[in-house]
Amino acid sequence: MKQDILELDLFKEVATHYEVFYKLQPLTARIYALLVFNNCKEGLTFDDVLETFHASKSSVSHSINSLIELNFIEQFKKDCERKRYFRIKKNLFLIRMEDVHKRLIRERTITQKLRAYRKTQGNELFKQDEVDVYISHLNSVTESIEKTIQNLKLHIKDK
After folding, report:
1. Which of 109, 158, 97, 153 is nearest to 134 (CA)?
2. Beta strand 73-77 pairing with 44-45
3. What Cα–Cα distance (Å) separates residue 123 from each residue in 24, 93, 112, 115, 117?
4. Per-residue model confidence as pLDDT tens digits over 18-69
5. At CB < 8 A and 24+ separation, what contacts does 111-116 make?
């Protein structure tokens, strides 16, 4: 079954997306894509992942540790078992939205500081109108994401 998933064009597209937009290494992106496709509470074991990709233990271990560090996946153990299982974080969409929100807030703050700095130097890097449009856009997108975060939190509470 897992091998069939690896051959799907959608799987390849998803893995490439994570590789390009999240700057994951190819194997890490493919492991993450597999866990996304797997989408189950039971998760996959290290051996499941190893068997699926036929990669070295160290490469798979490094990829899994990177995904845990990035807060993309979680590890857990089942009762009376020594094996570790891996699955997508339960609140993945909320985590992603909060990350995007932080990045946008930081982008807006940095842009405003750069604009102020350039004004004191008497030499503006960008036209004032362009900066204002950009900051205005960041404001509206940030507000939209804040609403999405609130909605996701409501859905999480309902579970």
Report:
1. 109
2. unpaired
3. 38, 41, 15, 10, 9
4. 999 999 999 999 999 999 988 777 899 999 999 999 999 999 999 999 999 9
5. 111/135, 111/138
